[in-house]
Write a structure and sequence with these properties.
Layout lengths: L6 E10 L8 E7 L3 E9 L6 H21 L6 H16 L13 E9 L4 E7 L3 E6 L2 E4 L5 E2 L2 E2 L17 E6 L5 E5 L8 H9 L5 H12 L7 E10 H16 L1
Antiparallel strand pairs: 1-12, 2-3, 3-4, 4-5, 5-10, 6-7, 6-11, 8-9, 11-12
Length: about 250
């Protein structure tokens, strides 16, 4: 039995197209009895069908991981990396013969959260983002593998990703009440970190929406697609008490 109190997780997500012609980010969330699974993918610019690549990446990886967990696996490095390798191979199989653009490819970041212990496992390939906000500090959980328009690693690229998945970086920690986890595509980098911290410090009802609204307010004419998922952590008892008080106030 774990001595860690179970957490209540509040998950919010939002996205904007920015100045691009279409949305080439994709996101996905699965809620299991013991786990919350999250993923964001970003189709690579200069490659064909980024919207297809990102959707294949999140669907393939997260469904593979979900099936592994439902069969009794735990979200350790091995099943997380296997999920990425599986998605990479799916992208390699795409029948693409375009004359100008390179074959479809996508970044991917996934998170698996265990409800009973607060354990978080992160896996990432590419330049998507994972930040932990704790006690007023921001920690980068998955340093981007690239800068600007250059990405060192991504699913679908011929980088020798399988069989060992050496390009997939992983991280793990235990979340605690008051923590916030932010997963995002690199379009969120338009927003200065101090502004991000200020927004999250105000405890908005929909933090992900407030983040992308702040990006839109900047008005960057070259704004990339931006997608954000924000996970807010409370102790189960604390969350129940807060909701109970709200219901009682509404009834008066």
């Amino acid at each position: 039995m774990s001595s860690r109190p179970p957490l209540r997780l509040s998950v919010a997500s939002a996205e904007i197209v920015g100045s691009r012609e279409r949305q080439e980010d994709a996101q996905l969330r699965f809620e299991l009895a013991e786990f919350t699974l999250l993923a964001i993918a970003d189709g690579l610019g200069g490659h064909a069908d980024g919207h297809v690549a990102s959707e294949i990446a999140v669907q393939t990886a997260l469904r593979f991981l979900r099936d592994q967990l439902e069969e009794g696996q735990t979200p350790t490095k091995r099943p997380m990396v296997k999920a990425f390798v599986h998605a990479h191979r799916q992208l390699e199989r795409l029948d693409y013969r375009g004359p100008r653009l390179r074959p479809p490819a996508s970044t991917l970041i996934c998170a698996a959260l265990t409800h009973s212990t607060g354990h978080l496992k992160i896996a990432a390939c590419g330049d998507s983002l994972a930040w932990l906000i704790r006690d007023g500090d921001l920690t980068d959980l998955a340093p981007p593998q690239g800068s600007g328009s250059w990405v060192a690693y991504a699913l679908g690229l011929d980088i020798g990703l399988h069989p060992i998945g050496s390009a997939v970086q992983t991280n793990s920690l235990f979340l605690k009440p008051g923590d916030r986890l932010v997963l995002a595509s690199d379009g969120l980098l338009t927003l200065p970190r101090e502004d991000l911290m200020d927004i999250l410090a105000t405890d908005p009802d929909d933090p992900a929406l407030q983040l992308v609204k702040a990006i839109e307010a900047i008005g960057d004419p070259f704004q990339d697609n931006a997608t954000a998922i924000v996970v807010s952590c409370q102790a189960s008892g604390q969350a129940w008490q807060s909701e109970n008080n709200a219901r009682m106030a509404a009834a008066q």
